[in-house]
């Protein structure tokens, strides 16, 4: 009979679990060396101890073994002090790292986790056993994003309906694995009713696929808001916003920036409970430490001005800006700043929120190459938030105004916003359970409606039908996703993009089409294996529009399409772009502080395939 004892190295995951004692019991039996064990992880204020309970039920705990073989990052072996002399480490763990001790990794591999996964996020696997793919049955594909496909599935063990997010894991792409690991680490750090909870992971020792298991959510806010039959009352808007802010407050208090708050990432279940989802762009941050991060985050329409200005040091304000945009959108029934590209976006912000003051430029920390150019922007716009939203209640107007403060330091925090008059005055927010029951509605449903409309339109064209038919519903264009998010590593992005262009005409070609990968009722494990040439990157779809018509509601007509381009032509474009990029590099626009290359790409880089899906035709910018 043997016992395995381990304690994970200190980590953000553990150190953040203050004020709570959580006990997780993984009761899966492991039959190894005739030992039957139950792994139990207790997380207390500052420790997390993996305890193995021997089959006789005796709980064996041995903290003394904890630091054996633990190597420092510089390779030095920690000296083991006798018991009693050991002091608790006072240095804070780097929450961005997952570096549990080697003995824990070995244990995880023995438990069935693939070694590559234990290496990148062993910390997050602590206390869990992998679920087998054949214990889920796929029902249908319910969403697709930049890095993943999402499926509705049935858990054969419990019968519960779950959402499985399949992320592509090419183990040769270390950087991409890190991003995936970051999402998992972040999700395990969070525990709040308004934040999606990672319920488990599906993988196997031999597999390169990974599925994240979540509770199934029937709706997303983008889908509900785009539905022609749904109009929200102020009480309902308050209910949704309160939940968004509560979720954000929790994330921020745990040192997590979401960095992609938008309607389609706000998932809602049948009981009206809203959970913030998609932490693919989220990052750890420490408000007290200077830390540079990428600016290429947040879907364009919800992107804060400091990001558009190129600030690489930012904080919770970027999520609050997005929340402000969503609040105004929910109350007005349409996106408030649907920019077509970064330059257009920033102009829309200036027109609504006024041009930044001299003080703003003095305060904002920008990289030196953009700093000098920014404040020469002309013309100077006056702030018009109050005029633009004069129909809102005074409390709603005041909250929108303070969330859309240009200066991130003047923007309300989630906690401030939750205590604002908006939530204190009648009509008060309704309870989530009082929200109407809607039929399942997701942004993907709106996309399907658009596709169906386009298909019919094209069929009519072929038949030579004339005359304008009324669309099922006039819609505003959809939000442009953060195109190059996870762009912390520029070279990685450049490489990914080049491969992406070389290998795929559009996102649809990198994922199997729905009839292959999303077909009904087959087991999760039976989906095809990833082709190593597939890379976990693409720009998102269904986005920009050139329509000058005023929009009515959230979603809108598909962008004008181009005939599909041949791969050869696109490769030619890539080469041309590389030459152009060289020419444009180092030159800075006097207008907005945007690199000229950025400006150039913003205007011309979005191309559309025959289904109206957008892809970037140019190498990345940052
Ligand atoms: N728990 C869930 N329940 C139901 N549907 C979900 C769930 N999680 C995600 N989805 C659906 O799948 C879509 C894509 O998921 P998600 O946003 O997490 O993926 P992504 O690859 O990070 O996407 P993006 O590129 O938009 O950031 C969501 O918009 C949502 O409609």
From TrEMBL:
Residues reported in the UniProt entry to bind ATP: 165
Q: Which CDD domains match?
A: STKc_CDK9_like (cd07840)
Q: Which SUPFAM superfamilies match?
A: Protein kinase-like (PK-like)
Q: What GO CC terms are in its UniProt record? A: cyclin-dependent protein kinase holoenzyme complex; nucleus
Q: Which UniProt keywords apply?
A: ATP-binding, Kinase, Nucleotide-binding, Serine/threonine-protein kinase, Transferase
InterPro entries in UniProt: CDK (IPR050108), Kinase-like_dom_sf (IPR011009), Prot_kinase_dom (IPR000719), Protein_kinase_ATP_BS (IPR017441), Ser/Thr_kinase_AS (IPR008271)
Q: Where is the composition biased (Basic and acidic residues)?
A: 16-32, 58-79, 440-477
Compositional bias, Low complexity, is annotated for 35-55, 478-488
Q: Where is this region: Disordered?
A: 1-103, 433-490
The record's annotation in Gene3D superfamilies points to: Phosphorylase Kinase, domain 1 (3.30.200.20), Transferase(Phosphotransferase) domain 1 (1.10.510.10)
Q: Which Pfam families match?
A: Pkinase
> Protein kinase domain location, by residue?
136-423
Q: What Gene Ontology molecular-function terms does this entry list?
A: ATP binding; RNA polymerase II CTD heptapeptide repeat kinase activity
Q: Name one GO biological process term.
A: positive regulation of transcription elongation by RNA polymerase II
- Sequence similarity: Belongs to the protein kinase superfamily. CMGC Ser/Thr protein kinase family. CDC2/CDKX subfamily.
Name of protein: Protein kinase domain-containing protein
Q: What is the species listed in this Swiss-Prot or TrEMBL entry?
A: Brassica carinata
